[in-house]
Amino acid sequence: xxxSTLKDDDKLNNILKAAQKKxxxxxxxxxxxxxIALELxxxxxxxxxxxxxKEQLFEAVVLKEQEEFIENINKSIKSTDSGIALLEVxxxxxxxxxxxxxxxxxxxxxxxxxxxxxxxxxxxxxKKEAEVVKTILEIGVAKGEFVExxxxxxxxxxxxxxxxxRLATIKRKNDTILSKQDHAVLTKHLVTTVDMFxxxxxx
Amino acid sequence: xxxSTLKDDDKLNNILKAAQKKxxxxxxxxxxxxxIALELxxxxxxxxxxxxxKEQLFEAVVLKEQEEFIENINKSIKSTDSGIALLEVxxxxxxxxxxxxxxxxxxxxxxxxxxxxxxxxxxxxxKKEAEVVKTILEIGVAKGEFVExxxxxxxxxxxxxxxxxRLATIKRKNDTILSKQDHAVLTKHLVTTVDMFxxxxxx
Lengths: 203, 203
Fold this sequence. Notes:
- The structure is a homodimer.
- Chain A is an all-alpha fold.
- Chain A is 78% helix and 0% strand.
């Protein structure tokens, strides 16, 4: 199958995959549109037909990561009938998602999070994440695992604490890129936090 | 009693008090050495005899706040024989300390925390804070309130989660100065976190 016979959706998908690979390899600042075009075996001009700059392409890659995370966790929600089990799945997948996004940019967190595009993307994502966590907590209540309460408030609180742990971990590393080891320690702290949280709302 | 009859220690103390008042009123950037000298009824030249610049004076004020916090919590430790009660005291005093320091600078957190002087001050403070929290947890174990464990690790974890909550709260406000209301919400979140933490280590 040649480029011209591929449907637009497939082409887009291939571009996003190639861009994801290159960003993860070199980071946002060091990746060029040329690197991505070469990876695709596609002319640079054709790539510019789809994306006007690498920042727009980066945004699309992050958005795709976010959508996949939300989609996957929603699949688990449909197939799992325990709030406790779902929270365990959520905390681990959420950390993998953070690690992926952190690696894509290879940027200091503050430079990244202060870009208006990423701010908007994160804001939208946090809303979806809050919905997902609220749904998980409500499943726990329905299954008799958790005591009843304002699950919207509890979901916001849990997300804030987890976000804080990521920020504090980055802060302690003086805003440099986190290593595999740092991510492992962070994962341990996040799991401990969710365990504490579960104990505090368990029946 | 005139300026010249005051001992050096008293003079220093008066300078720190006046500087504390002015920094809390105008913030670091907007306070001048002149404002502080005027508050003291002292010549600017005399003030420069004690501190060579306002940043050095700011450092001394923050250090004094930190020392008073640690001193006060150590007094409570000597007079209270419950780890749970001490954690309650600690979380509330710690938040007042943060609010005071946050108000003194009236700076975006990142501009402040990235200054080398403040970095050093915070690093030293975190070590003292870790010691204090560890001591409190060990009191809880000795009194049979908490299960035994690596209390140094648990203290670090609690401090990290609390630091994270402060950072995430600031992040959500787009790094602007927190209002009274923001501090009240943050206090609620910190108290909830310490409650969760206590439940997770309680016998």
